[in-house]
Structures are given as structure tokens and as C-alpha cells.
Amino acid sequence: xxxxxxxxxxxxxxxxxxxALFQLEAEELFRKHWQFVCHxxxxxxxxxxxxxxxxxxRGFVIKCEKNEIRAFHNLCMHRGSRVIAERxxxxxxxxxxxxxxxxxxxxxxxxxxPNKDSFGETDFSEMGLRPLEIEIWHGLIFVRFKKSNxxxxxxxxxxxxxxxxxxxxxxxxxxxxxxxTDILDANWKSVRDVDNEGYxxxxxxxxxxxxxxxxxxxxxxxxxxxxxxxxxxxKPSKKWSVKRYRNIVENNNWLKLPKLxxxxxxxxxxFPNFVLGLYxxxxxxxxxxxxxxxxxxxxxxxxxxxxxxxxKKIARYLSGRIDRDTAKEDxxxxxxxxxxxxxxxxxxxxLSDLEYGVKTYHDHLRKIIPVVNLNSEPIDYSxxxxxxxxxxKKEN
Length: 396
Ligand code: FES
Ligand SMILES: [Fe+2]
Hints:
Elements: H1 19-30, E1 35-39, E2 48-54, E3 57-63, E4 69-73, E5 88-90, E6 95-96, E7 103-104, E8 110-112, E9 133-137, E10 140-144, H2 153-156, H3 161-165, E11 172-174, E12 180-184, H4 188-195, H5 201-204, H6 206-212, E13 217-218, E14 225-231, H7 240-250, H8 259-262, E15 264-270, E16 274-278, E17 283-292, E18 295-305, H9 310-340, H10 356-368, H11 383-395
């Protein structure tokens, strides 16, 4: 529950530009938390695959015989080459390493080794691809590179099950060409900070404000998840694209959604980096990974229903237009946020109650990586060592 005395200053500036912290975040957050890969419809045929590259980890998901989907490290057991070179595609019969041609079955087991006799007494029985944890939630595929005490996706996102089921997301498919990727000169947490509050909507996002700015609401971040609701304004919109969009959506309810959902954009967030946006005509998603302490890759896409009507398609085109503007506006704010912490005049944030989501997200980070509580970067210790000391102290 909010009271007037909560901590309003945000994370200290050094946490947005420390290379040592980036390494720690890569390990504790990105390797040990579920990461989105793709929608199940992207793996239609046996042998179809999609890869994921994140914080020096490489993985892929693949459709096996019997319609099972499995996930593996994209790492050959011979000398560590990628076994799959492309971002997506279909393997015929087997996965063949492009380096020396070792081949693997779709279940990861080793299938063939060229010139096998040249390996002496080598025991090949344990030379299958290394599996990754995988979980599918309402058609979305997630993997995890390292085990951790983060719960399974079905538990983490359980509170959204009922609401998401109205959208029949497992029957959707990606919109051709909707996948986008941008590289930002910013720390990844600046992306989250901008995204975790709606206070800036009025000033920074004219189209969004015209759509739902009247009573946009960020609910408190709860056990690693968040929900925000933008219900369309009651007064008429002024911008032609927003007006036209609302006109179509408000005169249709393709999915027979409950009243609130049929007139709202609803966002679910999952710590540390995944956001799903439920719109009456489509679903959008986006997420980001750090490339370094000051470079971030942001990527996203759109899911649609098969056989959509012409009107629904126009609505999707119009919401896409609004979203493209919003993303550009946000990316500028994100870049400025990371620039800010380098300034000699930067002295922390001053958060309003409307930015409580930023604070609660930071609290979650503080719990997992307590070293971010320090006002300056510890330089006499390895950051990792220092963090472990703080964690041990907390447990005693
Ligand atoms: S590294 Fe894969 S076959 Fe040699
Ligand atoms: Fe924004």
C-alpha cells in the first residue's frame, strides 16, 4: 500500500552505467529468468526452429516428431559451434552442425559423426545437445538458460489466465513483417523505467493520450508481474487515426470480449523484460536485452487472428500506427534517461505516486541484486563478491 513516505529517488546513477553490474544482471536476471522466444504457430512443421541469442547465451526451440517442442543450447558438443546458423527456418531430417558436420536428431540426441574412428576411445553416449528449460503459456514459448528460484510461467502469470483466455492467443499467428528490432544507446533499465509508469503519457504520447489518457491506470507491480489498463476516453478523440480506430473498434466486438477488454488496451508485464499488450483486434509484445551497460536491443511483434475481416485489419493497421509513434517517443526518453545519469548534475529521481510502478520494479531488483542499494559502485571488491556478502547478510 502506498503512503506518503515511500522512497522516491530510484536506483542510483552508477547502476545504469556499470559494466560489472551488467555482468551480474546477465547472470542473475537474464540467464535465470524466463525469456520469450516465439509463438507456437511459428513452429508449424517438424524440424522448424527459432533461435534466441541473449547475454552470451545461444539457444533454439524446435518442433520434433510427435508435435513436441523442445529447447536446446545452440552449441555443438564437438567444438561449440552454433548448430543452427539462421534466426529461423526448417531442418530437414536432422540438425547438422555447419562446422564439421556432426548431426543431431530433433530430440537432441547425437545422430552422426563424420570420421567417427578418428576420435579414438571417445564415448559418444552423452554427446547429445544440452537441453534448456522450456514452457509454453497460451501459445507463447519461453526458455530459461539457468535454473533459479523464479517460479514457472504458469504460476507467475496465473492471475492473468482468465483475462487472456478471452483473446484465444494460442490460435493467433504473427503478422508478416511485424517483427521489429532497434538498438538503443541506453541501459536496459532505462527502457523499463520509462515503460513502468503512465505519468508521461499526457505529455509525451499525444496519440495514446487521445486514445486512453483520461484514466490510464498502472496497477501495483505484484510478485514479478504488472498490469496496466488504458480504457478508451469517454470524450471523442481528436486525431484522425485514433478517431477512426475507435470508430471501428467500438462498433465491433470480434472476440465477444467483456466490456472493459473490448474498449481497452491492457498490458501485462513479466519481470525482468517482457510486455504483452492486449488490444481488441490484435496482441502486441516487446522485450529488451542488454548488449552492454549502455547498449540495449529492443524487439517486438504483433499477433493476429487467422482470417481477420477487412475492418479488423484496418483497426490493426491504425493501432500499429499509434504504437510506432509511441515507440519512437519512448525510445527518445529512454536515451535521455541514460544520458542523464552521466551528468555531473544528476542527483537521482523524484518519483510521483503515478510512478509507483518504477519504485516497485526497482524494489524487485533490489531484492535480487542488493548491491544496487549502494549509493556508489563498490570498487574495492568484485561486485559479485560484494553482492553475495549482502545476500548472505540478508539470510542471517
Ligand atoms: S563444432 Fe560442430 S561439428 Fe565441429
Ligand atoms: Fe511511454
